[in-house]
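Exercise: predict the structure of this protein bound to nicotinamide-adenine-dinucleotide.
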Amino acid sequence: MADPLFSVADKVVAVSGGLGQIGAEFVRAFHERDARVAVLSRDVDPERARSVLGDLAGSDRLALVPVDVTEKEAVEAALASIEELWDVPDALINNAGLDTQPSAPAQASGPFEDFPEELFREVVDVDLVGTFLMTQAFGAAMRRVGKSGSIVNVGSIYGLVSPVQEIYAHLGAETGVPFVKPVAASAAKAGIYNLTRYCATYWAQHGIRVNTLTPAGVARDTQDAQFQANYTARIPIGRMAEADEYNGAAIFLVADASRYMTGANLVVDGGWTAW
Ligand SMILES: NC(=O)c1ccc[n+]([C@@H]2O[C@H](COP(=O)([O-])OP(=O)(O)OC[C@H]3O[C@@H](n4cnc5c(N)ncnc54)[C@H](O)[C@@H]3O)[C@@H](O)[C@H]2O)c1
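Solution:
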């Protein structure tokens, strides 16, 4: 029997970046628990959706909705199409994000002193402004129709503490430019925590809850063994995360089990920030 405390059945759940590594796991987890899931993505090519989500992509409880979270009009159009199809969402997972990868040009992954302003603005635009625009539109709609909604903002351990540069230093060996984990996502994600608290207190009387979920690094095939070993050494649990290991926290934050929780930060980091 499904536990009503953790039930998300019949809820309309919107997941931004829903075809990304963690986002697709959120989509699967909510869909498996009988929610109706709006997969908000910049790329809504059905072929791509099928390659990421498999048969789920054809489910009548799943909708592919185009959005660029940095564009207010696109955000409002995405919300309107979900409302027209189902209803105002009961939950929004602000998962879309941009980070600078080791494959970035040397200038973008080199010394902080040379980090390009343009790239800093681009990352802040997605990670912070995008979360603001999505939260503003979806929260306003929840308030308009009197829904007790839940908004989950995905943060990062690197929004709580600084990256440990030693983990990455070997990555530039081939190019001769030592890789420096860039500043932009750290700064943008840090802003998520007080955007969350602000909206949580602002909407608390209206039954709309807003919390942050803080993940640590997920293992990917593209990471080299040295990086994985360096990263793992920093994690008390002794391994990097699997992409689906944030699902329990996301379900908890949307379900009734967390009904007295708002403005909080649920840290799921294998103990990274405990050291
Ligand atoms: N993977 C990790 O190790 C890790 C660690 C800490 C935090 N996080 C956070 O978790 C979230 C998901 O990360 P992920 O690793 O799955 O990333 P990912 O790159 O696999 O997915 C992110 C998704 O966001 C989408 N996106 C980017 N810009 C967008 C825009 N302007 N409009 C709409 N969508 C946009 C991308 O298309 C992509 O599908 C991010 O917020 C990330 O910062 C990830």
